[in-house]
Fold each of these.
Amino acid sequence: MKLSILDQSPIASNQTAKDALDESLKLAQFGEALGYTRYWIAEHHDLPGLACSAPEVMIPYIGAHTKKIRIGAGAVLLPHYKPYKVAEVYNMMATLFPGRIDLGIGRSPGGSAEATNALSDNFLQQVFKMPQLVEELLHFLDDDYPTTHEFSKITASPMPKVKPMPWILGTSSKSAQLAAQNGLPYAFGLFMSEEDSVAMINQYLDAFLPKKHGQVPEVLLTVPVICAQTTEKAEEVALSSLIWSLQKEKGLGQTVPSIEEAKEYELNEKEHEKLTVMKQRLIKGNPQEVRESLEQLQKKYKADEIMILTITHSPEDRITSYKLIAEEMLSSN
């Protein structure tokens, strides 16, 4: 099984944003050494506790300090941007880091309504135009993709020898359909979805339409995971991210709380119920338990690859989690 890393660059309560971004680089470097296939960093805008608003800045920084791991955005929130500029940026990266650049394409705002309005005009109208935006972007990345748009004769220079690999990211039938119709690999955010995820992935597989020779459907599943030496330790480490999620719903939680701070947080009755549900959605445990859970998910969702999102207060706990999983699942590959 191929395993990869999704990083939201979380800021812990004892960190600055610079600290969090430094830890993102370290995570990518460790991931490369451990045998993970790719490292993607997410795009968020004005969301407390998340440090990366510009993956197009972090990706080349990480690329310059790693050698072979694939790197990319999870995702570029395309309705905010002109496809031509996105293609220029990622073609530039692919020129600098040949054979390593992924371009995840998403449609969410990535922040509050106010941040969305500050970042772009007519966001909702652009969301409705998503199929057209994707068509334009794919043509700018690869002249072989058919297009009817008005900019078909211009080039998003520089054109790299090895093109960026586009992916559609999402959690809905619309994203599954968009990926299938364009013959693209599909990254499904299981950690964000409350829909019938199996049905959506099956929809993608059934509707997949190759646009070029040799294209086959490819499913990447993104899941939240906390792994530790023991089940008890994993439960303890996981409490930070779980309580942080509850705090953010109340407009609190500017940063990821420590384990001690999470234990001191007083839950009301409704939060107790939410916490129980959240614990069920989070994969956590010792290496053997995590492996069993991931293998079950791979089989259930027909996934070619699993991308792991791990949020902890301590950077050491996060690295340990990825290390234990790699030793359990990648050491024999």
Amino acid sequence: MSRSYSPDEPLDADDERILAEIGRLALLVDPVPVDLADRSLFAMTLAALETEVMTLELVPEPTGVRAETAPTQARTITFTSTSRTVMITVAPGIDGVRIDGWIAPTGEVDIELHRPHGEVLTTRTDDDGRFAFDAVAPGPASLVARPEDGPAVSTPVIEL
């Protein structure tokens, strides 16, 4: 004889067995990313900086360029806000990636590279607004620009 079920009944052993099997299948088909908690905490930490968040604009790579050597796979990214524009080029380096950047308006600005686990690398732009970070490990990162004469601005998190 078959039993009828009602959604108002409390869960029983059969329900828990079925839910456990559904959970096992979900983990098998779509596992939780290993670094999800770290990435979430990193994003929340950046949000807590209370800076103006810049908009990301990918710059298309040129096509049809001839070279004697293989391409380096550099990518150029521009971030804009109402008060600043930051353009960076991310290229493979010897010990990670190299970031070359420029900020406008120019002048000396403190630049922070925020990484998961609270790691922050810092540099300062030159008078022309240029800055660089050498040998940065690949992974998620965000830049924060702290000018002396205005509000700080932050880029969204990008994958280096």
